Amino acid sequence: MNDRDVYLKLSAIAEELLGLSQQADSMIGQTALHTAAVTLAGTAKAVYDHCLGGEEH
Fold it and tell me: What confidence score (pLDDT) does residue 57 get?
């Protein structure tokens, strides 16, 4: 699995979790799923920025 695949998979899972958060029955479930989605989206962005986006570090 290359870096692009990792980015795409993390992004897809984040979107799925965000959708699930809107279906959760409780505020705790909504918050947990939303937090997980935001965390994975941030991880996907880091992969993109550092591996695919061409940023110099």
Answer: 45
Cα three-residue angle 2-5-40, rounded to 5 degrees? 115
- Euclidean distance between the first and final Cα of the chain, in Å? 23
50 DSSP assignment: I
Q: 19: domain range? A: 3-52
**22-57 pLDDT, tens digit each:** 999 999 999 999 999 999 999 999 999 998 775 554
Structure tokens at 29: 């479930």
Residue 44 lies in a domain: yes
Tell me which residue of 32, 49, 39, 31 sits closest to 13, measured CA to CA: 39
